[in-house]
Each structure stands twice: as C-alpha cells, then as structure tokens.
TrEMBL record:
It comes from Deinococcus radiodurans (strain ATCC 13939 / DSM 20539 / JCM 16871 / CCUG 27074 / LMG 4051 / NBRC 15346 / NCIMB 9279 / VKM B-1422 / R1). Residues 7-175 form the MmeI-like N-terminal domain. Residues 642-840 form the MmeI-like target recognition domain. Residues 186-257 form the MmeI-like helicase spacer domain. This is site-specific DNA-methyltransferase (adenine-specific). Its EC number is 2.1.1.72. It holds the Pfam family MmeI_hel. It is an enzyme of class 2 (transferase). Keywords: Methyltransferase, Transferase. Residues 334-575 form the MmeI-like DNA-methyltransferase domain. It catalyses: a 2'-deoxyadenosine in DNA + S-adenosyl-L-methionine = an N(6)-methyl-2'-deoxyadenosine in DNA + S-adenosyl-L-homocysteine + H(+). GO terms for biological process: methylation.
C-alpha cells in the first residue's frame, strides 16, 4: 500500500483523537478500534484481537487486559494525564501470564502517548515513546500493527547502546592487560573510567569533563596517567579543590576510588576510550547488563560483547516479582489507612536482600530498583489518603539493603559499580514519579560504600548475612563436570560440608539447600537452577528437602531456554518458608529456542518435580523390577578406535572369517530415531569375555585397538596419576581416582561392555530399545546380533505383550514424570523410571 495512503489514515486518526476527552472507561475501546483502522484493518475484531481479555491474578481472581492481539501485542489503556511509568508493572504481569502465544510487544497508552515495550529486550524502559500527534511521521514504531507484520523501528534500544559501550571498554582493558599491566590494577582503573563516564553524562561532574581529559591526552596536552589520576584522586577527596582544573569535582567516596593507581594508556587505547566516552550516552546504558557484557568480553581474542548473551530482565523478574514485589504489592493494595502504609514503608526501608552468587550484580540491581518502585507506590497511596499539604516521609530504601557474595574478585567490584549506578537511576525515576509531592529525596553523592555488603568468597563455605529474601542464579555446573572443573579436593570438602546432599546432585542444589536453611518463618527465596533440579538426586537434595522442611513453592518455571550466556535449559523456583494461601503459578516452555511457546497453569500445590501432572516424586523402587534383569544401558565404547565403518568392517571380516566373533553391528540412539527400521551404519570391536591373550587371536581387530586405543589410555592414566599425586601431597589420606588406571588395565576392552546385558539379550531372539535421550516416543525391536550403544536403553523382552507395555502412553507419561532431561529432551534413567514403574 502506498506510504501516502498510510500517512493519510494516520492523519485521520489524529484528527479523530483530538475529539476525545481521554476517558479510560468510556473511550478506550473506540480509540483502539480506530487505531486498528489506521493500520489498515477493518477494526480490532476483524483483525482477530480481543477486548477485556481475562488474565489470572497472582494469589487468585482475575484481571482484564484492555486488548490482546495474539501473538502480536498487548495494549493497556489509562486515562489522559496518567503517568505511564506507574503502570509498566501491570503490563508486565499480564504479559508474563499470557501463554501460550504470548504477545511479542506490550503497549501502555494514556490517550496522549504510546509506550512500546519488548519485554524480551528491556524491561525498565520502553523501546520507544510515541506521542499520538507524531503518528503520521513515526508510525513505523508500531509496524507490528499492520496486517502484514513488519519489524518496528525503535529509537530507545538501550541494549544495543550498552553492547557498544561494553565492547569499547573491554577492548581497552584487554589491550592494557596484554601489554603486561597487572590484571587487578587494570580492572580497577577501567572501572573508575566507567564510573567517570557515567558521572559526566549524569552531570555528577561537569558534562563532558572526562571526555575532555581523554581528548587532551590523545592530543598530547597531558598524560593519561596524570589527567585521569588527578580526576580520580579528587573524586576521593572530601574537600573540594580550591582551584585548578579539578575544582568542580565533588566528593564521590564509595570505595571504588579508595585506591587510585592510574595507568598510562597508549595511543590506540586512548582512541578507544575517548570514542567510548564521546559516542555513547552513558545515561542510557543499562548497568544491570553492562557488567555481564563487559565481563563476558574479557580475555577473548575476538571481542564479542556485541554478541554475548545476558540474563534478560524478564527472566530476572521471574524471581524478583514473586519473591519480593508481589507480597509487598498485595500489602500496598490492601492498605486502607495511613498507619498501614507507614508500616509498609518502614518494612521496605529495612528489607534486606541477598544474592549468594551475585556475579556483576544484575539480580541485586533489579531487586533494588523494584523496592524503590514499591516505595514510590506506597508513598503515592499515602499521599492520596493524607490531607492536602501533609508532609510525606522521606524515601529511605537504600542500596545498602542489598547483599552479595561472589567468588570472582572482579565480579565483586562490578557488582558494587552496578548498584552504585542503580541508586542514581532510582533517584531520577523517583523525581519523575514524585517530584511534585514535596518529598525529601536522597542525594546521589557521596556514594555509598558497599565493601561490607558485596563480599568476595565461596558462598557454600562462607556465612550468609541474615536477610529477608534470597534471590539469584547459582552456577550452572553439572555433577558430571564438577570434579574436573573444581578438583577432587574441593568436591571432597563439599561432600563433607553437605553430607545429606546426594553425590549425584547438580552444583546449584547446594545453594537451594543452604538458602532454605537460612530462611526464617515467612521469608522467601527465588533461585534459578539447571532444569535437573526437579529430577532424581538433584530434586532429592534440593526441592524435596524444601517441601519436606516447611517450604511452599509459590511460583515456578518447570523448564525454559535460558536467556543468559550458558546454553542450558533451566528451572526457576520461588518459595516461602511456611504456608502460602491461594493458587500457585507454574509455567513451562515447550521447545529448544528462546522464542519457543509457553504454557502455564494455576495449581493448589506445586510439587518438587515442578510438574502439573500427578505427583510421583515419592514413587518407591519396586523390588520385582529391580531384580528382573530386564532394563539396561547400552555399551560405552570409550574410544572411537573401537568403531569401524562399513568398509573397514568388511575388510576385516573378509580377511579372516573368525573376526565375525568380535565384530558386531553397532546402533546408536540417533540412528534409532533417524531410520525406520533402525539401520546401524557402524560396527564395534568387542572382545568380551576374552582376556588380552584371547583377544590377540584376532589379529587385525587387536592390532587396531593396540594402535589406536592403547596410547590414549596410557596417556590418560599418566595424567590421572599426576593429579592424584597432587591430591595426596595435600592430604595423604585423600581418596584418589583410579578411573583411567582401570581402563588401562583392560585396555583392549570397551570402557563399559555391559557383559550382563550382552549375556541376557544373546539368549533372546530380539529385544526392545529406545533412545536414552529423546523427545519422541520411539520403541523398536532389534535383532540380538546388533550391539546397542550407550545412547540406547535396553529392555530385555522378546514378547509382544511386554512391547505393548513399554511403548504405552502410561509408560511414556511415567518417563516424563520420573526421568531426567538433557536440555529439552527426556532422559531415560532406569533407577528412577523402570525400577519404580508399576508394571501391569
């Protein structure tokens, strides 16, 4: 359609809009209908949108969204003159619950302005603000409203701005470290530069002051060592300079400038730093993701802050909202007296929050910001209930109510900077919301010292401060990689400190366990974990412990694709120590992509498996199943040298007929799912039950294993022996690992040949298999001459009745409820699935 026709429709809409009074109840629906017409639709109904769409209310009941057009947009109308900043929380609440087919965008409108949000991108500010009279020139902000959807053109994408800034500063830091500067010194110096760039754009120091210093250093009008060093020393001096260049610089304090140790930057570094200061508006940068992006781009040969992932605010709010915001929001909405509201304000001012794995402080940033916004809502309610002219109490929520533990020393410093900037942004937002109330606002300077609030240490062995809520994202470290990454001594210490946590539990389970033990009655926690926290030993060590020791899960995500840098599926769990009234909210994502669809439900109780189905978490193992000798994992070859392609196998079989006694077709899980009937494409050399002398009788297969496998196993055993020597040097009584030594002692054999399984299936004409990791219900019979890989689960039955039971929907649902997961795929675990399955 010609652009002139579109522009004319926008002009017609603006002309109609000028006739409206801006009454939320009386004019919203006709306003929305005309808006749809302006974008080429016959009306909202013809486009497929719905008015007054019911949305579940946290804690029970329903609310109504003004307009929902799936999967495009949610629009929430407010009366003319209403401050839209006060209502983003409502729009986000609706958006969070609108599954499946959650709308991509959300719009707040007060008849004069349209605030457009993409909550997957940024939460605290709209992607753009559009005045109605600007529509004829700027309707592209709402491109998603056209019948043929187009990408909107936004003017306030703070994420992109933040990526650019983080990338620029990281390049300077990496350059400084690469030429030999001490890492800790370089990190502190660059963080001081970052704070100065924020300060000049927030006008805490004269605008452009730091940029001018960088320009002078580039032009040779002074050294960066002297210029930046002088600035930072003045920022740490309580008495103003009596004259000279640094006379306008106020006292910052705060700990960051306590140690000033400047660095002389070279020409290229000065260029990058000057560019970062000049071309970025640091007042628009999001501190809560700057630290993550900055940290992720350090030590990389290819700087990748522009492409790095970060935990989205929407995902952080899945913790902060139910654990901190919703309980206070209910109190504020229910309060009817000044006394009640003043009590709520007192509680907000004393409410302490801990993130025991705080990283660069993004969870604490959001928690602090939301506490400030809750305080603003309570103050507005108090104003409405007070006589005109009544003085309101001052805003008292402080960043010193935020506590963090972090193992990485640089992460600690980043978190302090993040929270320091959060305070300045919160003060500005409070001025916007409450500037006409006569409120006594806190001052941005001097900075709060957070050295006793954000502390370096291992949270699992460091005492936690007493707080009211615990939030965060503990490390995503699987049990299988824990010893390799952390070392045997650390794992032993961990097991000794937490003897009741199963040894096969994921690392994040220890945080869940410790968090629950730290909580007092009525206190809350919200943590992100790998999605295996709801399964098997990880569930037993964490969420089972929570619900068995007085915890009530109030809001959870069973599984979702994580928005952060780790390529994992996660679970999110929020709980209170004690009872909780009302329905509980459970959501889950269906698929492997960040854009995959969502589902949700309201439940009277959320079980520790974080599932909406029947709770089978306490199903017991059945002795008849355990002793049946019917369920096995396939063979683990342990080295690709045991595997042959068709040509290699054919040559060995042709060379000597007896080689068929040790060469077998070998089927993998992928081949089972990919071909029907299943067709092995490779062969495996399996000498069992022969010893090394028996294996030597098969010359070609044995020579291959001796050539390909033996050297690798010798090297692995030597490395293991060296690691064991280090462990024993530290602790002569330590238990060492003999894993690779055992493989070397049987170097001609598969790592795990599963001799019992081979003996069992050899006695059958056929046996049943499924892929151990799968999304699909695929069970097949295999000939007993085919060797199954460890990607297959084996059921040693040859009869049709047993096959019917195994491939039944009942057994499949049991697998869904009792099995493990790998990303979004189900994992068959015989001890939790088959051993507990009530065989009919």
């Amino acid at each position: 359609m010609p652009q002139t026709e579109t522009a004319q429709r926008m002009e017609d809409f603006v002309a109609y809009w000028r006739t409206l009074k801006g009454d939320e109840k009386g004019e919203s629906q006709v306003f929305l209908d005309r808006l749809f017409q302006a974008f080429g639709h016959a009306g909202y109904k013809e486009a497929g949108a719905e008015l007054e769409y019911r949305v579940a209310k946290q804690g029970g009941g329903k609310k109504f969204a003004d307009l929902l057009w799936r999967p495009r947009v949610l629009i929430e109308m407010k009366k003319r003159g209403e401050k839209l900043a006060n209502h983003y929380q409502q729009a986000f609440d609706y958006w969070l619950k609108l599954v499946p087919d959650r709308p991509r965008y959300a719009v707040l409108c007060n008849f004069d302005e349209l605030w457009v949000y993409d909550f997957n991108q940024q939460l605290d500010e709209p992607m753009d603000r559009l005045r109605i009279e600007e529509l004829p020139e700027r309707y592209t902000v709402l491109n998603f409203m056209f019948e043929q959807e187009r990408a909107p053109l936004f003017g306030n994408n703070r994420v992109d701005v933040t990526r650019e800034a983080a990338d620029s500063v990281a390049k300077v830091l990496n350059s400084v470290i690469a030429r030999g500067e001490d890492r800790a010194r370089a990190q502190r110096f660059l963080l001081q530069c970052v704070m100065a760039m924020f300060a000049e754009d927030f006008e805490l120091i004269p605008r452009g002051f730091f940029t001018e210093l960088a320009d002078d250093a580039r032009a040779g009008r002074g050294s960066s060592f002297d210029l930046f060093g002088g600035l930072f020393r003045q920022m740490n001096t309580s008495e103003r300079a009596r004259g000279g260049r640094f006379a306008p610089i106020p006292y910052f304090n705060g700990g960051l400038f306590r140690a000033v140790d400047p660095i002389e930057l070279n020409r290229d570094e000065l260029y990058l730093l000057h560019k970062a200061a000049l071309e970025n508006n640091w007042a628009r940068i999001q501190p809560q993701i700057f630290g993550v992006l900055f940290q992720s781009s350090m030590d990389k040969k290819e700087q990748h802050a522009k492409g790095a992932h970060y935990t989205s605010e929407a995902d952080i709010m899945r913790v902060v909202l139910p654990t901190i915001v919703t309980p206070f929001q209910r109190q504020i909405e229910a309060a009817t007296t000044q006394k009640e509201l003043r009590a709520i304000l007192d509680e907000l001012a004393s409410f302490q929050v801990l993130d025991p794995a705080c990283g660069s402080g993004n969870f604490l940033y959001v928690a602090y910001r939301e506490l400030r916004r809750l305080e603003a809502r309570a103050l507005l309610r108090l104003r409405d209930l007070s006589a005109p002219g009544t003085a309101l109490p001052p805003a008292r929520v402080s960043i010193r109510q935020m506590h963090g533990l972090e193992y990485d020393p640089f992460g600690v410093e980043l978190a302090k900077v993040t929270l320091t900037l959060a305070k300045e942004l919160a003060i500005r937002e409070m001025h916007d919301l409450l500037g006409n109330t006569g409120l006594d606002f806190d001052q941005p300077l001097p900075l709060d010292n957070l050295d006793d609030r954000i502390v370096q240490g291992d949270a699992l062995f460091t005492p936690w401060p007493r707080v009211d809520a615990i939030v965060g994202n503990p490390p995503f470290q699987s049990k299988n990689k824990l010893q390799r990454e952390m070392g045997a001594a650390y794992v032993k210490k961990l097991r000794a400190h937490y003897p009741d946590v199963p040894g096969r539990a994921d690392y994040c389970v220890y945080w869940i366990r410790k968090a629950h033990d730290q909580l007092g009655s009525g206190q809350r926690a919200g943590l992100v974990g790998t999605n295996t926290i709801r399964q098997n030993d990880s569930r037993v060590g964490g969420l089972d412990y929570v619900v068995q020791h007085g915890g009530t899960i109030t809001d959870a995500v069973g599984t979702q694709v994580w928005s952060g840098d780790a390529a994992v599926h996660v679970s999110i769990v929020n709980w209170v120590k004690g009872p909780a009234e009302g329905p509980k909210h459970l959501a889950w994502q269906v698929g492997d992509h960040r854009t995959s669809p969502w589902q949700s439900t309201e439940l009277p109780v959320i079980n520790s498996a974080l599932s909406a189905g029947t709770d089978v978490t306490q199903a017991q193992k059945l002795r008849v199943n355990m002793n049946s000798g019917a369920c096995y994992q396939g063979q683990t070859h342990g080295h690709k040298g045991f595997l042959l392609d068709g040509l290699e196998a054919g040559q060995m079989l042709s060379a000597e007929r007896k080689n068929a006694e040790v060469i077998f077709p070998y089927l993998t899980g992928d081949e089972l799912l990919r071909t029907s009937p299943p067709h092995p494409t490779r062969y495996v050399i399996d000498f069992q039950p022969r010893d090394v002398f028996g294996a030597r009788a098969y010359k070609l297969p044995f020579a291959r294993i001796e050539r390909e496998v033996l050297p690798t196993r010798q090297a692995a055993a030597a490395e293991e022996e060296a690691r064991n020597a280090e462990v024993l040097a530290a602790n002569p009584k330590a238990k060492t690992n003999k894993h690779h030594r055992n493989f070397l002692n049987q170097w001609w054999a598969l790592s795990y040949g599963r001799s019992e399984m081979i003996e069992k299936i050899s006695s059958l004409s056929r046996y049943i298999v499924c892929s151990r990791v799968t999304k699909r219900q695929v069970f097949e019979f295999l000939d007993n001459g085919i060797r199954p890989s460890d990607g297959l689960q084996i059921f040693a039955f040859e009869d049709d009745y047993s096959f019917g039971v195994i491939q039944s929907s009942v057994h499949w649902q049991w697998l869904i409820a009792r099995g493990g997961t790998l990303t979004a795929r189900l994992m068959y675990t015989s001890d939790t699935v088959f051993d507990t399955f009530p065989w009919p």
